[in-house]
Every structure is written in C-alpha cells, then in structure tokens.
Design goal:
alpha/beta, seven-stranded mixed beta sheet, 300 residues, three-stranded antiparallel beta sheet, Spore Coat Polysaccharide Biosynthesis Protein SpsA, Chain A
C-alpha cells in the first residue's frame, strides 16, 4: 500500500454510523492511501476493519508540546470543554505523526465529510505552504510540512494570564453581540492566517471540481430553502460505476469533490458509494428526490 498520502480522521466520543460512510468513500476514491482513525478513548471500531484502517488514541502520541498545551489550555467556548481540547490536540498529534514520517502528506478529514475524488489530484493545486485549508475551515485540510509555527502560536496564546485576558476580550465581543462563545481551533486557524502565510486557503473551485461544499451553504449554487436552513440541490450522475454529486449554477453543472454534511445535514449522509459495487438506478433516483424535492427534504 502506498504511503504517500495519509488520511487522518480524529473523532471524539461514540463512533457514529456515518463515520463508516466517510471512511468507505476515502477508500473507494483513494484506494492506495493510508487511513488512520485517532480517537479520545477506546471504541468499538470493528465496523471499519474491512477498510484497512489503523486505529489509535491521542494518548499514543505524546510530545513535549502537547504536554505544555494540556498544562496551559484555558477553555473559552460555550461548547463542551473536552471536545474543544480534543480539537486542538489533533494538531499536535498531526505534527508528531509528520515528524515520524515527513515524506507523507497528511489529509485531515472531518467525520461528516464524504469525498468523491483522489486527494493526489487536488494536491497539485495546493499553495506552497505547510497547511492548506478551504474557506478558513479545517474540514478538508492538507498538511505538507512542519506546522510547529501554528502549534507555537496556540501555546503562546495560552502562555500567560495577560495573553488569556486578550483572548477573553476577543471572545467577549461575541457574547456582547449575542453570539455563542466558541474560541475554538478553527478561530485560531483564522487568527494565525491573518498574519502568517504558513496557513493558506486553497481555491474552492478548480479544474478538479468544488471543494468547499458545506451542504447548508448556497455558495452561489441552487438551493432548497428548508425549514431550518438552506440545502444545496444535487444532481447525481453515475460515472465509472460511482455516484458523483454535481451542483447547479444557472445552466452550469459543477462537480463536487466533497460533501460536508454539517449539523442537521448528517441525517442525509448516505452510503452513496460502496466497495461492494455501484449503486442501483433506483438508488440514484431516490437521491435525486431527497436532494431536489423541497417537501421531501423537509422530512429529513
């Protein structure tokens, strides 16, 4: 098995069914890639055995930097503290893995993301920097080089009472506006990106297709306006025995490289492709209805 690309799934808490769908899509479209699942605790992962996944825990990757982070972290979020800590810790674990095998490119993929392309093709479009993200979000992230600069930024931000006070001022602006307090690792990515070129955005749309595909964000494409939020309309095509999603922009169809089923979108995260064989015509028809019919979508 080729080790040039290693997909990293970090998951906190009980393993959900849709994680198997996400991992299966990676294995189908990236058959030679290494896949690693790193969790916060011991979980039953037997449902993933058929996908040749390496399973481990955060505690299996100690480092001096991670110890410092655990000693200095100050929770500034209305979300669960253990979950937010885990999200920060994944960056330290990623760097530990990278140091052990620096020849690899590490792809961090959120558990609620389905890929429909080879990461090696998209890698050709990446900016020349250690960390490449799309739309400021780490849902589909490429790590190619040393990310110590970002880790040091996190550590420095929690290094003293004065620094933590500055962070509290930033988060305090959110609560003043009535927003949920959530100074998480994604916010740190954006703050670090504001003054350092060590993290850069890659283009959402390229010759490979569209990569910043949150199912609930219109992003210029046709959408269904559902009760709770919009949802992109999807045209499904069977290509080479695989179901491939497309978005519609006027008369133009744009291939989706990923679908990010964030929030309530997880309810329609299906097993669109299977190692067992191509989907049937009735499945393709049904997915058309789910993703293009408003009344049906409101039921899901």
């Amino acid at each position: 098995m080729s080790s040039a690309i290693s997909f990293l799934f970090f998951h906190y808490g009980k393993i959900p069914g849709y994680l198997a769908y996400a991992i299966e899509h990676v294995r189908i479209f990236n058959p030679d890639a290494e896949i690693q699942l790193i969790t916060d605790s011991i979980n039953d992962t037997s449902m993933l055995d058929r996908f040749s996944v390496s399973v481990s825990r955060v505690e299996d990757y100690p480092s001096e930097e991670l110890t410092r982070f655990k000693d200095t972290y100050h929770h500034l979020s209305s979300c669960d503290e253990k979950y937010e800590r885990f999200c920060f810790e994944r960056w330290f674990v990623t760097e530990t893995l990278r140091r052990k095998s620096p020849e690899k490119t590490y792809v961090l993929l959120d558990s609620d993301v389905a890929v429909f392309s080879a990461a090696s093709d998209l890698l050709l479009t990446m900016p020349d920097c250690p960390i490449s993200v799309c739309g400021g979000s780490p849902h589909y992230t490429f790590v190619k080089e040393d990310i110590s600069a970002f880790l040091n930024y996190i550590l420095d931000s929690f290094s003293s009472p004065q620094k933590i006070t500055e962070l509290m001022k930033i988060s305090g602006k959110a609560t003043t506006r009535g927003e949920n307090l959530n100074l998480n690792d994604q916010e740190f990515l954006l703050m670090f990106m504001a003054y350092s070129d060590r993290i850069q955005n890659y283009e959402s749309e390229s010759s490979q297709g569209y990569a910043n595909a949150n199912i609930h964000r219109p992003e210029g494409f046709e959408c269904l306006q559902l009760r709770r939020r919009p949802r992109k309309k999807i045209v499904w095509r069977l290509e080479g025995g695989r179901a491939i999603p497309y978005f519609k922009r006027g008369d133009q169809l744009v291939k989706a490289l990923i679908l990010h089923f964030q929030g309530p979108g997880k309810r329609v995260f299906k097993r669109f492709n299977s190692l067992d064989g191509p989907p049937s015509s009735i499945q393709i028809w049904w997915w058309h209805q789910i993703f293009r019919t408003r009344w049906l979508s409101n039921l899901m």
